[in-house]
Amino acid sequence: MHKKELRIKYKALRAALAEEEREEKSLAIANQLLRLNIWDKTYYHLFLSIQEHKEIDTEFILQILAGKDKEIVIAKSDFETRKMTHFLLTDNTKIKKNDYNIPEPVNGIEVPVAMIEVVFIPLLAFDKKGHRVGYGKGFYDQFLAECKPDTIKIGLSFFEAENQIEDVFEADVLLDYCITPTKIYTFN
């Protein structure tokens, strides 16, 4: 399937999830993450869920990271430049939803991309080769291209892999892992 078709398909599948099912699947994904060999790192980039889009609830992952005393990095999006600025999440960080309902830091301590070691990536769909389909705005494409080559890229999905995304670009940055409620996919 093509990215456009996959976006339609997976937005509909996600919209059909009951709130309780979304919470159960989000918790299962967080528990799967504990099985990965990624916990020796310091800086973890995490997206804050857009509730209105029925995204994975990352609160469970946030709790794991805080419990392991990790540095949690969150982003603020600039829709004109399609760039993200990254901030350390602290007790003093004020979070506010932007015009697209994305929870973002109002301000804070900026973290250079070079310091980020693990990135948890929101997505709508992914395939068995590690390609992903997001919302199509290109924020994560640009961000991941700026990351160090050894930065661990982990997609999070309620649903299992598609066989193949047909219209991938050569410049697309592949995932290292994708975590679903029932499976850990490993790429590369």
From TrEMBL:
Keyword Ligase set for record: yes
InterPro entries listed in its UniProt record: FTHF_cligase, FTHF_cligase-like_sf, NagB/RpiA_transferase-like
Binding residues for ATP: K3, K4, E5, L6, R7, R132, V133, G134, Y135, G136, K137, G138, F139, Y140
GO biological process, one term: folic acid-containing compound biosynthetic process
Names of the cofactor(s): Mg(2+)
GO molecular function: 5-formyltetrahydrofolate cyclo-ligase activity; ATP binding; metal ion binding
Keyword Magnesium carried by entry: yes
Annotated SUPFAM superfamilies: NagB/RpiA/CoA transferase-like
Positions contributing to substrate binding: I50, E55
Reaction catalysis annotation: (6S)-5-formyl-5,6,7,8-tetrahydrofolate + ATP = (6R)-5,10-methenyltetrahydrofolate + ADP + phosphate
Family annotation (NCBIfam families): MTHFS_bact
Protein family per UniProt: Belongs to the 5-formyltetrahydrofolate cyclo-ligase family.
Name of the protein this chain belongs to: 5-formyltetrahydrofolate cyclo-ligase
Organism annotation: Flavobacterium piscinae
